[in-house]
Amino acid sequence: MVEKRIQPLARDAMAYVLAGGRGSRLKELTDRRAKPAVYFGGKSRIIDFALSNALNSGIRRIGVATQYKAHSLIRHMQRGWNFFRPERNESFDILPASQRVSETQWYEGTADAVYQNIDIIEDYGVEYMVILAGDHVYKMDYEWMLQQHVDSGADVTIGCLEVPRMDAVGFGVMHVDKSDRIIDFVEKPANPPGIPDKPDFALASMGIYVFHTRFLIDALRRDADDPNSSKDFGKDIIPYIVKNGKAVAHRFGQSCVRSDFEHEPYWRDVGTIEAYWQANIDLTAIVPELDIYDKSWPIWTYAEISPPAKFVHDDEDRRGSATSSVVAGDCIISGATLHKSLLFTGVRANSYSKLDGAVVLPSVKVGRRAQLKNVVIDHGVVIPEGLVVGEDPELDAKRFRRTESGICLITQPMIDKLDL
Questions:
Q1: Same domain, 344 and 277
Q2: Is 303 a member of any domain?
Q3: Looking at the 3D structure of the chain, how many domains does it have?
Q4: What range(s) does the Glucose-1-phosphate adenylyltransferase/Bifunctional protein GlmU-like C-terminal hexapeptide domain occupy (predicted)?
Q5: Is residue 52 part of a domain?
Q6: Is 205 annotated as a binding residue?
Q7: pLDDT tens across 274-333, in order?
Q8: Is 262 annotated as a binding residue?
C-alpha cells in the first residue's frame, strides 16, 4: 500500500455528515428518533461510527445536518461531541434544517442539505469536503480516500463496497473501467455491471463522497438552479459528474480499518429490524466480525457515568448469569439468565426471567418469569411479569412488530395494549 503523506490531507478537510433521515424501515424504533440516533452496540449511537471515523482519520472540522425528529440526536452530540476547540482550528457544527435559504424550505434532499449551508463551509476555507451518511456501521480511514482523490485528479471520489454482483440490485452501482474511473452510475439495476478485475462482483455506493470544496460548491449551485433536480447526490449530483466530469471509485477494502481479529471489511446498513438485530447480536460472538474493542480506532460516544454491571442470586433456579452476551454498565441481572444477548445501560432483568437473542435498549425493566427470545426492546420499556415472546409466532405477530424470520420489536405502546 502507498505510504501516507507526511502532511495528512485530512487536516485540510471537513467531514459533512448527512443525518436527517428517519429510517422508516426500522418502523417504531424511529418513531421518536432519527435513524442515526438509534442505539447500537451497548453504549453507542449509529452516528458515532461516521463521526469517530472522521475524528480518528485526523479530520477536525465536522458538520452534521439534522432534520427528522432530531432532538435526541442533537442532545447526544451536545453531550458526547462537545470537546472540539476553536483555538486548535477545530469545529463541530450541528446544522438543523432551519429555513436559512427560504422561510418555507426545509432540506429537500441530501445535496440541498449541504447547499443550504454553503456559507458556513466557505467560512472555514477547507480544501476538501468528505460527505458522509450518518446511518451506517463501519470503520474507515478517510485519509486513504482523500489521497486517492488528489492523486487521481478526480472531480468526485465515491466510496464503494465490493458485493456479489446479484446482491447489488438494491444499491446504486458503479460501472467502472480498468482504472476504476466510473463510466456509468446505475440506481438499483436488475443486472448489475461487474467489476473488470472481479466480474462476479459489483461496486455498490456507500454514500461517501470526496470533493475539492470549490468544485462541490459550484456543483451544488448549478444543481440548485435546475428546476428539474431532486436535490440529491445519488440522483442528481453524481450522475451529472459521471457524464460531464471525472468520477472515480474508491474501494472500501483499501481504507477499511481492521484489527488483528477482523479478517473481512465490515460495513452494515442496519436499516431494517432484521439487520439491526443481527448486527448487534453479531457482537456477542467469541470473535465478532466488528471489533469494537480496538483501542487504536476507538468508537467515541457520550460516556455516561454509571456503576458497573451486577449479577446477583446463586440458587439453582434463580441465578444471575450471562453466556455469550454483552452487558453494559448499570445493568442488574437479578436471578435472570441471559444467552447471546446485548444489554444497553441501565437494564434490570428480574428473577426467573430468560433472555435469548435479546437486544435490550437502555433503562428497560424485565419482569419476573418473562421469557424473551429473538427480540429488540425499545428504550424504557417495562416488560410485564410472565410475558412470553418467541414461542407462538401468530400471537407474537398480533402483539408486536414481527419480521418474517421471527424477530420481534417491542415498544411501550405495544405493551400498554396487551390484555394480560
A1: no
A2: no
A3: 2
A4: 307-410
A5: yes
A6: yes
A7: 999 999 999 999 999 999 999 999 999 998 999 999 999 999 989 999 999 999 999 999
A8: no
